[in-house]
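Thread title: Can someone regenerate the structure for this chain?

I was given the following input by a collaborator and told the matching structure tokens would be attached. They weren't. Posting the sequence so someone can regenerate them.
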Amino acid sequence: MKMNSRNATTASSTLIDRLLIIASEKGASDLHLSRHCYPTYRIGGELFTDDAQEPMDDPQLEAIMQALLSQLRRESFERQGSADISYSCNGERFRINLYRERGAIAVAARRLDGATHTLATLRLPPQLEKLTHFHEGLVLITGATGSGKSTTLASLINEINSQRRCHILTIEEPVEYIHCNQMATVHQREVGTDAISFAQAIKDALREDPDVILLGEMRDTETMSAALTAAETGHLVFSTLHTNDAVGVIDRLVGAFQGDEQDGVRKQLSMVLRAVVTQRLLRSGQEGQTGRIPVNEILMVNNAVASLIRNHKPEQIRSVMETGRAEGNQTLELALALRVKERLISKELALSHTSKGEYLEDLLRVLQAESRQRLGEAG
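Best answer:
Regenerated them for you:
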């Protein structure tokens, strides 16, 4: 008996829901589905296949795509080969990316806890609170995919929402965290549903009276240029880039533009950039600790850093970070050393994430000396 399209859609919704519920029960952060493969879950940063389920086949994946995507998004998926959506299941939210690989449909689902955490509960550095006090300029949160950038951004927006009477506008694809009005008024636009692109949405934003703009991602030069203009015209703009160090983000952003535009972009960036926070998540290597620990490199932009950006001397910025700890700057090695001191990660794990092992060892000795001095003063 042939299943009609409505029944097929219902069955596919039930299948994806069942797999997402299993992901939640396993404590997985991600679910991967692909042709001829068992469902695969990322748990604690590692991938595990679930051979208790059946391997996925083409008809199942095609039906899941049909169930998840509206007609408009299906047309976009066929043109572009990928689509991002937000999805709710069993009281939880997921960010789902559908894409084609070797001609077949594949699915990557990221589980969102839905709660907007504080900086403290996320174990983020306390100096990040300074970022919520800016009233204009550009703040970038960078890192690899899966490093928790969106969660960190959500916590910063939540801090502003709870403390400031202002208008917050988020532009995301998809909307990941729902922010209810607290002291602030919050509007959230989803690219593909409420706006045709990031670039157009941030241009539109300048006519929507925002004080704070969250731009989910700067994917192209048009979006980057619009974000710089928004920051330059008195708005506080938060956004993300995929880079693995705070200094490298400057060349990455400037390098996205044509050669004859780069000097102007560099000058503009030197005037609007307020901070860069690079994040990575490390598995706790200490006995009794579970989960993953954020490690943040932080660049706070002062006049000296702005001058180095303007004069194209990014190689000198790191020395400012090393000597500017009192202003909130934090190199990767200092971030790792602090996590070791806090007994959140092991020294061996910290050393495996830097090429500057001797510098990290020196920092650990400095931190130990500071602790002994504070104990002596307290005694």
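The longest strand covers residues 273-283.
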